[in-house]
Specification:
By secondary structure, the protein is an alpha/beta fold. The chain is flat.
Length: 1021
């Protein structure tokens, strides 16, 4: 006798108009609760899971509730729709003993007239002895009769005392009943936004209400605020977080995790080469990742998203524009950083909490997502500007204040600076002094320019205000030396800076400029320093914390430009002082990206000081990379800090990324570093420029070995970008340069790269000849390793495997097709032999990419074999050379899932490519994984892998992979057109996209496969 099934899962019973829909008292609560419980692998059901208009709804509810372990019954003002009397009568006929265990309740219910479907859910739980938890808001008195009936059955409602934290209360109670439900725990990170906190927020009531609505919205995942710098985005968000969550009682209502990060601190103005590496590492650590350095940038971003969505998280990403392509760029507004892009893409797709993003630029990455919303923060309203100026005790009529508001274009920071300047500089505090600032119409067309005009006036006044004001100006000027808050140690180093002597000032204009600009720092006592900082803080020109001093990014930008333009010698000398301080105060080779951060800062300061060579050799190469040999490259290889490294390399360029500073010796190497990091981050088009510049430089210097390497790398990159003719040309140049150099390895590698370019162009014979020539050179170079290995070996295997790959697709598209054994078995055996030999030769320290590609080779062999065998494992290659007919003459269909198929090489290849950080190779592994899951019948996984591959290929851009993806999706749609998920695929449209790309690019490798797919579509339209 079979055991009775154990009750499982949770049914959430409530009226949607009260606990779900927009405009409800608790909008989105049921969705949040369901999402939280689903992450515990609990089966969570609600009434809307089946059509409400369907017949026998009461019976359907009964069938849903009977097997559940718990019913959560939420009661508010609204009871929902009344159950159909005919349905009720039919159900009671089927269940004559309904509520027999609760006779008083059954009597009170009478003929069940007026009982709603939601109320029925509670009674069904009682009847089937399912644990019933009842919660009532203060508005549930509207359902008092229903509450009284429940009491007759001994079920009393938990009163919801804290409306703002109902979610946390429910989870806490469920945890006590169902151990599988994790306890609701709060964890909040210290904020980075406090330094931007406004003393008073003026005129943003509508924006605050919009943020309230965004948090309460059930299906909104990412909310973006866009406005010019200084418009008040950060102040608005921090005020909202503080007043709605941090300062409430109880604190953080409904928030399980809170984390914020300000990217303003990592680059402003035109210095837009920043990195999200430190943010990703810190966030992974906060959310409980065991190894924040594991994987490439994109993988870490996806992993962080998965951790964030385990909780109802409020995540604030402030000032992300340093990580976006700037205005005027072809990709303007798009995120440069793959980790941050992956994080936002994943959270836009699925997020029980909310991400709030602030930026100066439209964020193009989230276009088209229905779960995201973008709001532009307009200029400060006129009435709010008047209130702000009145709060600063500025004198004038409303009309005069309105005129100042108009002159400042309603820019919040400009108005605040203007009011403070007038209050400081003029005893009468008369608003009409704004005319002396000389605003122009052009100020309204450029971010921050109106604020800069006020700063010009402010600076002049401070300069002419005697020693106290001049000391304040000296402190303010320091902010222009930093692209982040000024750490206490750096401030102290500048304060203890020994100024040039009198003799030095007499002999050197540079020394005179340094003394004039920063001399007051050396004579400033601690008391005078503290007074200056305190006063600047009081007028909100500085924000002060225990370990740092900061200013608004626009103020930093202003003083940086002013110092560089007007006091260039002092500018360089100050950066030189900071370079020395950071080099001396930081452990020689610190661990982790947190430990390396001061050294990254030192590189920037060193280059701004004109000490490029020292910064490169002594800091970047020796202390950050820890050498460039096989045991070096610590930051990218061990920490995955590719973005942070690229930001450091950026500092060595006079014209990124084509012209390295002439002060540097290793110019070609730095060009290669830039190209390598850009390519690893998936910024392929940008990598072309430094690669090309490196090739030209090596050729001019007749450094033929490095010229061969550069030409070969350029060929690979152009191949990925779909420029096949150019790729073949560069590969030929690589061969010529390698032959000039006489370097045996480069001569072999150049021929392999040329063969690979020809392979993708469909020039099979020429490609095969070059691969064979490359392998002969390999045997001469290393007699003990008689096969091409590493990337060259993988590419040769692609050429060898091509006939079998095409045959496998032919077999899937048309099971009746006949294929001779000679087309298949020999190439499979040869490629398998080569793949296994690679693992025989494996040694410790082999590159992760090599290992991943070797797994991919064997995965391809195993997958093709699986396709060409029936589900019982009987090979379909027969002695008579025919392939495709079973012994009884019937065709074998291969759309049946082979769920027992197990190819560990597939997962190893994909995870290895992720770990290697080579985004430009990952789509290849994902395409193989997608086919593997398709053959196994795991269609959801197949679609997921294909979708990820497409996102990477589109971002690259990688048009060859994009052609493969459209071709693969079209073939899946043809083969499994009746399967759920594939039936919605427009196979013809996908095939048309593939055909367009394949023909435009001259992607000859896919010509025959495209023809096979077009023929199959013609047979099965």
């Amino acid at each position: 006798m079979l055991d009775a099934p154990q009750p499982s899962g949770i049914f959430v019973s409530c009226a949607s108009d009260e606990f779900e829909r927009d405009g409800a008292s608790f909008p989105g609560l049921r969705k949040q609760l369901r999402g939280y419980l689903a992450r515990t692998r609990s089966n969570v059901r609600v009434q809307e899971d089946f059509p409400q208009a369907a017949a026998r709804t009461v019976r359907k509810l009964a069938d849903e509730i009977r097997p559940r372990a718990v019913v959560i019954h939420l009661l508010g003002e609204k009871a929902g729709a009344v159950a159909d009397a005919t349905e009720v009568a039919a159900y009671l006929r089927d269940e004559p003993s309904f509520l027999a265990e609760h006779p008083e309740l059954r009597t009170a219910l009478g003929d069940f007239s007026g009982i709603t479907y939601t109320q029925w859910e509670a009674f069904l739980a009682l009847h089937y002895d399912v644990k019933l938890l009842v919660y009532a808001t203060d508005k549930a008195s509207a359902q008092q009769a229903h509450l009284d009936r429940l009491r007759l059955a001994g079920r009393y409602a938990h009163r919801i005392e804290d409306h703002t934290d109902l979610f946390g209360q429910l989870i806490g109670d469920l945890h006590d009943i169902l151990p599988v439900v994790p306890k609701f725990t709060r964890k909040t990170a210290g904020t980075q936004l406090e330094k931007h906190a406004p003393r008073v927020l003026f005129g943003r009531e509508a924006e605050l209400a919009a943020l309230d609505a965004a948090w309460a919205h059930g299906t909104l995942n990412v909310y973006t605020l866009v406005a010019w710098g200084g418009a008040g985005k950060t102040s608005l968000v921090f005020h909202w977080v503080q007043t709605r969550f941090a300062a409430t009682e109880p604190k953080w209502p409904g928030v399980e995790r809170y984390f914020d990060w300000s990217f303003y601190s990592q680059g402003t103005g035109e210095s837009r080469q920043s990195s999200a590496d430190l943010f990703i590492a810190k966030a992974l650590e906060f959310f409980g990742d065991p190894d924040p350095t594991a994987g490439g940038p994109y993988e870490r971003g996806e992993r962080l998203a998965a951790l964030i969505r385990q909780h109802r998280t409020l995540l604030v990403l402030d000032g992300i524009e340093p990580l976006q392509y700037p205005p005027g760029d072809p990709q303007a507004g798009r995120l440069k950083d793959p980790g941050l892009e992956a994080l936002l893409r994943e959270l836009a797709a699925d997020n029980p909490g909310l991400v709030i993003v602030t930026t100066r630029e439209h964020l193009t990455n989230l276009e088209g997502h229905a779960t995201t919303e973008e709001r532009k923060l307009d200029k400060l309203p006129k009435e709010a500007a008047v209130a702000l100026l009145r709060d600063l005790r500025i004198v004038g009529t409303d009309e005069e204040l309105h005129a100042a508001w108009q002159a400042a274009s309603g820019h919040a920071l400009t108005l605040s600076l203007l009011g403070r300047y007038i209050a400081d500089a003029y005893e009468d505090r008369d608003i009409r002094h704004y005319r002396e600032v000389k605003f122009e119409a052009a100020d309204q067309e450029h971010q921050g320019r109106s604020a800069f005009k006020v700063m010009i006036a402010y600076e002049r006044w401070l300069q002419s205000g005697g020693p106290p004001r001049q000391r304040e100006l000296a402190v303010l000027r320091l902010t222009g030396l930093f692209d982040r808050p000024m750490a206490k140690g750096c401030m102290q180093a500048l304060r203890e800076w020994e100024m040039p002597s009198l003799l030095q000032r007499l002999l050197s204009a540079r020394a005179r400029q340094v003394a004039r600009t920063f001399g007051s720092l050396a004579t400033m006592s601690d008391e005078a320093w503290n007074i200056a900082v305190k006063r600047l803080s009081e007028v909100e020109l500085l924000s002060v914390s225990a370990d740092a001093i900061d200013a608004h990014p626009l103020i930093r930008e202003y003083f940086a430009a002013q110092l560089k333009r007007d006091q260039p010698a002092a500018f360089q000398a100050a950066h030189s002082r900071l370079f020395d301080h950071l080099c001396e105060s930081t452990p020689y080779r610190p661990d982790g990206i947190d430990g390396l951060t001061p050294l990254y800062e030192a590189v920037t300061h060193g280059c701004l000081a004109g000490r490029h060579q020292e910064a490169c050799v002594k800091v970047y190469v020796d202390r950050i990379l820890r050498g460039t040999g096989s045991d070096g490259h610590y930051s990218p290889r061990k920490l995955g800090a590719i973005g942070a490294d690229l930001a450091a390399v950026y500092a060595f360029f006079d014209k990124p990324f084509s012209q390295v500073s002439p002060q540097l010796v290793a110019q070609a190497w730095l060009l290669n570093q830039a190209a390598f990091h850009l390519r690893a981050l998936g910024r392929l088009s940008e990598a072309l420029q430094p690669m090309r510049a490196g090739l030209e430089m090596s050729a001019r210097q007749k450094d033929w070995k490095n010229a061969a390497i550069a030409a070969g790398n350029l060929s690979d990159l152009k191949l990925t970008l779909g420029r096949l003719t150019d790729a073949a040309t560069d590969a030929r140049h690589s061969i010529a340069n390698a032959d000039r150099s006489g370097d045996a390895f480069q001569r072999m590698a150049g021929r392999s790269k040329s063969a690979n370019a020809l392979l993708h162009s469909g020039q099979w014979t020429e490609a095969g000849s070059l691969f064979a020539a490359a392998e002969r050179m390999q045997q001469e170079r290393q007699p003990g390793y008689d096969l091409l290995y590493s990337v060259q070996g993988f590419q040769y295997c692609l050429w060898l495997l091509a006939p079998a790959e095409q045959a496998s697709w032919q077999r899937l598209l048309d099971p009746s097709i006949s294929i001779t054994e000679s087309q298949i078995s020999s190439c499979l055996e040869e490629v398998e032999r080569r793949g296994n030999k690679m693992f025989d030769w494996r040694v410790s320290g082999d590159p992760l990419l090599d290992i991943a590609l070797d797994h991919l080779t064997l995965a391809g062999v195993g997958l093709i074999r699986a396709i060409l065998e029936n589900e019982m494992g009987t090979p379909l290659v027969r002695m008579d050379g025919a392939l495709g007919n079973d012994s009884d003459g019937t065709n074998v269909c291969f759309t049946d899932p082979q769920r027992t198929l197990d190819l560990p090489h597939v997962a190893a290849a994909v995870s290895g490519l992720r770990a290697a950080g080579h985004v430009d190779e990952l789509p290849r592994g994902l395409l193989t994984a997608s086919l593997y899951q398709f053959v196994r019948g795991e269609h959801d996984l197949a679609r997921k892998d294909l979708a990820e591959a497409q996102q990477i290929a589109e971002r690259g851009p990688m048009p060859l992979f994009l052609a493969d993806i459209h071709l693969t999706r079209a073939r899946f749609g043809i083969i499994a057109k009746d399967e759920s998920g594939w039936s919605e695929v427009d196979a013809k449209a996908e095939l048309d996209r593939a055909a367009k790309l394949i023909r435009e690019l001259g992607y000859g490798r896919r010509y025959e496969e495209l023809a096979d797919a077009e023929a199959a579509l013609g047979r099965h339209p």
